[in-house]
Design a protein that fits this description.
Layout (H helix, E strand, L loop, with lengths): L1 H20 L7 H16 L7 H23 L8 H21 L2
Helix pairs in contact: 1-2, 1-3, 2-3
Length: about 100
Amino acid sequence: MKKVYLILALLFATVSIIFTVLPMGTLAFMPIIPAIAFAILAMRNSDGRILHGSRLILFVSASMLLIVIGKELFVKDEVVADKQFEQKKVESEKEATNELESEGL
């Protein structure tokens, strides 16, 4: 049973790393929590000896949890209006209307 928990913890830890790197926001919490839970279950079901793999997965999952919390608290996602693009857009519209008027259409 501990191998099943360890495989599931590894799977969820891998997905949590991917979700943490990609801009998924708080969606990255979804695989982190099961990864931590399965790593703890794998540690509990070991027969007196703690597996190094479960410790590593627990450490990676906890660090991903801290990274996601840090990204949510300190990184601000803002959409800024591009004034140069808007100005070029207005100018190209004016040029297009002038061309159409000069052609007599």
